[in-house]
Amino acid sequence: MRLKGKTAAVTGAGSGIGKACALRLAQEGANVLAIDLDGASAEKTAEQIRKAGGRADAAAADISEKEAVMAVAEKAAKCFRSLDIWVNCAGISVIQPFLAEDSEQVWDQTMRVNLKGTFLCCQAAVKGMLGHGGSIINFSSQSGKKGTNQYAAYCASKFGIRGLTQSIAAEFAEENIRVNCICPGVILTPMWDKQVNDYAKKKHITPEEVMPRFKENIPLGRLCTYQDVTNLVLFLASKDSEYMTGQSLNLTGGACTY
Ligand code: NAP
């Protein structure tokens, strides 16, 4: 067990990648606080960890609300001895034409959740790690490396997360608080269930053609899996990556090499 005695907070832990991270960190011995907008789904993740013999608690919070984030950080401090790892998985994604009528609303909401939410969670994480250090892992995307059409708000928010990561990493390196971010390619999660039709529409293909089309453009010939992404999260959370901070790591099967 690589994280025995450590405490990890994971946002977006009720679904997709966040849930997979919470379960994997717990398997490696971490005490986990599962955080999600939907408290019931976070509680399900925590329950699954406890049933498997781990230690976990759950909290509902909108990560774009400062008070909610600070309350959750306090809960983490109360539940467990210290805060060592914070994984920022919560995020939203909307595919829409740049000139769509409600594009301003989508822009504001995407920036609020993806960028401001990650910023607020990083503040909470840093405060909890001062004095003993820790590892913060943010989620950018391959869309944080290359802008694509009908994805302006999402791409801008994910580029922003890389800048935020580098800035905090530089500011808190001397406190031994490491901050890195992961830029995955496509992983089949509930996020994709919600947006596959919009993606198909923008590419003029059927929804069934979407995933095979992605695979064609991935040198390693397959989509990213939960195992792939949690392997990297575990590496960044553990001492194995103790000399790494401020990095944006591609996890794209070779599709993105810059
Ligand atoms: P997901 O299955 O939709 O999970 C996202 C989770 O975040 C959901 O549980 C959602 O709660 C929660 N959430 C949304 N808004 C929130 C808020 N304001 N406060 C707290 N929680 C909130 O998505 P995913 O695919 O696992 O994505 C996880 C992260 O990886 C995201 O940052 C995403 O951009 C990034 N990523 C994903 C992919 C991919 O292909 N899946 C690729 C690259 C990067 P509700 O369900 O209750 O709304």
UniProtKB/TrEMBL annotation:
Name of this protein: Diacetyl reductase ((R)-acetoin forming)
CDD domains from the UniProt entry: SDR_c (cd05233)
Keyword Oxidoreductase recorded: yes
Cited Pfam families: adh_short_C2 (PF13561)
Gene Ontology biological process terms from the UniProt entry: bile acid metabolic process
Gene3D superfamilies the UniProt entry points to: NAD(P)-binding Rossmann-like Domain
Keywords (A to Z) from UniProt: Oxidoreductase
